[in-house]
Amino acid sequence: MKLEDVLKSEEIVETLEAFSKSLEISVWLSDPQIEEVNKISPVWGEKPGKKELTRAGMLKAECKPGRIEMRRKAVAQRKPIIELCPLQLYVFTAPIFIGDELIGFFEGDGAKARPMDEEWRKIVQEKQKKYGFDIKLIEECVGEKTRIKSKEELAGMIDVVVSSIKLYLELMKKQEEFIKHLIEISRDITKTAKNIQTLGINAAIESARLGEKGAGFAVVASEIKKVGDLVSQQAKRLKEHIDELML
Question: At what angle do helices 151-210 and 10-23 cross, to 10 degrees?
Answer without folding.
Answer: 170
